[in-house]
Design goal:
By secondary structure, this protein is an alpha+beta fold. The protein has seven helices and 17 strands. Strands 1, 2, 3, 4, 5, 6, 7, 8 and 17 form a nine-stranded mixed β-sheet that branches. The protein binds 2-OXO-4-methylpentanoic acid. 2-OXO-4-methylpentanoic acid binds next to loops.
Length: 358
């Protein structure tokens, strides 16, 4: 791997109109440029470049179309009130990208080059970072297997790309509005020894059927149980999950089938810093229901880059409906949302050193 690769820049001569900040939604608009890095066995990862955002030309036999060798990441750039641009813990995303590479037999990428690519692309697209409250520039790095071949084995050619999307809230355009969650006890997302702990595209494809079912029943998202016994809480798919019970915080421990969320890790550190006990452990859904029945389940919330802190207003498990905090945003979820977004938007002291100025 050549550590000193120069990123070429080809400027687009057709700049797009920026979208209306009031109706950004999530992942609908894309900026003028994208980053590309190619891999082959002879040159390794090579030819880093920022080029106009445009469709790709790939062979219909590119391996990603057939066997799904693909991984991705998600992080955000935030505009501060005084006009600075901040990234939030990009080193963690880059570490996880390379962990996903390893599990999916994709050659790792020099972390310094990935960071430089993110920083340069965000600099080029600085004007695309929205500055309305609750908005940001979502950064989507991803890798696909491009080798034209139909045998099942790791590809020998790949593309690493980064695209950017100005976004608002992930769920129905509103931040901090409680979501309704359906506890899925028939279909599973991941199994021990599988790939649930890495950010590979197939995990998301596998979640769609149950997600569709949940939506038909009037729910926003699915809460997955473990793939072996269908008993223990795992994650929501677009976020990790937390429970506040009797003043203490519980979240499923990373067991090899749960994604290690960066917001999850940040929340754990913040809550510990506040002196509130945090337990990372195996959590049976039945115990959550019992805590609910006993009046001890105070709040439930999800955490994720896209979802930020997302309060849960209702959990449906079999015939049981758990209405949480009168389906309103709880104080604890609100405080976490404010603390974490204040750090991300440079409004509060960053005592953990999480932000990186671009
Ligand atoms: C993120 O939070 O960045 C994610 O990757 C979740 C995604 C499914 C929107």
């Amino acid at each position: 791997m050549n550590m000193n690769q120069v990123i070429e820049f080809i400027k687009s001569d057709r700049l797009k109109e920026k979208p209306d900040l009031e109706s950004l939604g999530f992942g609908k608009h894309f900026t003028d440029h994208m980053f590309i890095l190619d891999y082959n066995k002879v040159q390794g990862w090579h030819s880093p470049r920022i080029v106009p955002f445009e469709p790709l030309v790939l062979s219909p036999s590119a391996m990603v179309f057939h066997y799904g060798q693909a991984i991705f990441e998600g992080l955000k750039a935030y505009k501060t009130n005084d006009g600075r641009t901040l990234l939030f813990r990009p080193d963690k995303n880059i570490e996880r990208l390379n962990r996903s590479c390893e599990r999916m037999c994709i050659p790792p990428i020099d972390p310094d080059l990935v960071l430089e690519a993110i920083v340069r692309l965000v600099e080029v697209e600085r004007d695309w970072i929205p500055n309305k409250e609750g908005t940001s520039l979502y950064i989507r790095p991803f890798i696909i297997a491009t080798e034209p071949y139909l045998g099942v084995r790791p590809a020998s050619e790949y593309k690493f790309m980064i695209i950017l999307s100005p976004v608002g809230a992930y769920y129905s355009g509103r931040q901090l509005v409680p979501v309704k969650i359906y506890v899925e006890d028939e279909y599973v997302r991941a199994v021990p020894g599988g790939v649930g702990h890495v950010k590979t595209s197939g995990n998301y494809a596998a979640s769609l059927y149950a997600q569709k079912k949940a939506e038909e029943l009037g729910y926003d998202q699915v809460l997955w149980l473990d793939g072996k016994e269908n008993k223990y809480v795992e994650e929501v798919g677009s976020m990790n999950i937390f429970f506040k019970i009797n003043g203490e915080v519980y979240t499923p421990k990373l067991n090899g089938s749960i994604l290690s969320g960066i917001t999850r890790d940040s929340v754990i550190q913040l809550v510990k810093d506040w002196g509130v006990p945090v337990h990372e452990e195996r959590i049976a859904i039945e115990d959550i229901f019992n805590a609910y029945k006993n009046g001890e389940l105070e709040e439930v919330f999800g955490t994720g880059t896209a979802a930020v802190i997302s309060p849960v207003g209702e959990l449906k498990w079999n015939e049981h409906k758990m209405l949480l905090n009168n389906s309103e945003t709880g104080e604890f979820s609100k405080k976490l949302y404010e603390t974490i977004t204040n750090i991300q938007y440079g409004k509060a002291e960053d005592k953990f050193g999480w932000t990186k100025e671009v």
